[in-house]
Design brief:
The protein has 610 residues and is mainly alpha-helical. The chain is 66% helix and 5% strand.
Length: 610
Amino acid sequence: MTLSAPNDSSTAANSTQSHQREIWLSVLWVAVVSGIAFFWGLASTGLVDETEPLFAEAARQMYETGDWITPYFNDVTRFDKPPLVYWLMAMGFHVFGVSEWTVRLPSALSAAGLVGLGFWTLRRFGFARPELATAHATVSTPDAPGSLSRLSQRSLIATAVIGSALIALNPETIVWGRIGVSDMLLTSCIGSALFAFFLGYSQPEFPQRQRNWYLAAYALMALAVLTKGPVGVGLPGLTIAGFWIYLNGPIKGIRAALAEMHVVKGSILFLVMTVPWFVLVTIANGQAYIDSFFGYHNIERFTDVVNGHSAPWYFYFLVVTVGFLPWSPVIPWAIARLKPLGFKYWRSQSRQGQLGLFALIWFLVVFAFFTVAVTKLPSYVLPLMPAAAVLVGLAWSDRLCPQPGQTRSSLGFGLSLGLSLLFLGILAFATFYSPNWMGDDPSMPDLPEQVRASGIMVWAAIIWTLALVVSIGLIVTKRGRWLWSVKLIAFVAFVLMSLLPAYQLADQIRQQPLRSIAATTLEVQQPDEPIYMVGFMKPTLVFYTQKLVTYIYEPDEMTQALAEEPAGTVLLVGTPAEIDQLGWPETQQESLLVEGTYELVRLVLLRSGG
């Protein structure tokens, strides 16, 4: 007995060291993935018209005025979204100053947080097959009593590594994780709330831990509501309700949820976090706020077309296919392998093994909700991307860690490999010829020529061609299960060598001229000299000048507006063609700067007798 103690102590020490090493490796993995996806070159471009500067300027005005209740843009109330994203940006301005990096920091941090919580959830309960969760509770090996089986361990690690990478590294998430708007923050709050729910649901043997995770889910839903309104509780609420109902039936499912989820405590927490601001902003603005936010920006967006954002019923099939590349070809197989119609099968599995089902319901709820909604935008289905990543991560883990006796051949897997090769070929072709399809934006007509000259898309075509060749080699040698790693490496290379450089090039052509116009405006503006912009509204002019700008869409309306100004001068920004349409006498205008497709002029306003 005296000889066994040192061995036991040594075993415990080795186990502790191994656990700590895994923690550090996990943190490093999440940091690297998030750094590539969200932080690399975050401030290398200016704000992007038209939506990003609306958020940035509303936050800046909140920071300047100290009014944390009512958001304003250009001295006009902005009721589009609740205040959380403005609060976070404004707090960042206090700490880091006003900059593009600070504007985008909430999106990048919230995206990284979602990746981290996704990794944690998958590392705990990302079993490739529900049966492996049973091994988690029952298998005891001689060398590690009471531990997970080696197969279960490999499955969890594979799912966490692949799934967390896919949460971050897809086009839709990268784009919105790098823009200072509310979409990524909303997605992170909703996704984190759903992960928190599952972390509570899957641990009934630890009541206090379960309660804490459930309360965390309520708090995160409250933050989602403070980010974008009722959809912040509607989407996770429908997902959680659908999950309970699937497993228990409608009546028993609702009763089970109400009995377990600490609804009273959670509701109090939710209301305490959300109600005060809605009360204060309504007191401050009255019916105008209610009609704008709840009426126009929520009810009408669901029931009618807003701002011309209509699309056919199949719109989100295309958005998910493109937005989740290069992983989207695997989604059909990842769903089919779960046997979604096998009610008895899923109801017989332990809670720890039901993450795949939960992710599927999450995916379908978000997809169906916005397909039914009349107003459609690509960013609306961003909240389902984490669910898609979980589904695909589980599927690939299943191929990497097959159970003993599990057949390796699979028609669905074979079809997904074939689709993957097809899409790699399409990506190689599309990126090479993409300059031929550019040029629709009149503010950057030279983009196709500059993209060709830069060779950015040639590199992209080379990357995807090499990925296709290597993938064919893996399939021929019956190593198709490693295709995910080829896609991952290729996508990272594509992001760093093509996507981000292309984005920076577009910024130089499309947005840099407006920043130059704004800088010149600040240099030449005379005291009390008004600033106008004719044509399409470019909110960056307000953010970079930090001045009030009057936007007039039509030249005829511009002429009428100028007629109402007193004698003196005004600064006017627009395209040379739009300025020419005013018919202003050449002797009464001075061109101050022509940059890109924009011109800054000073108009002299003469009145009768002047």
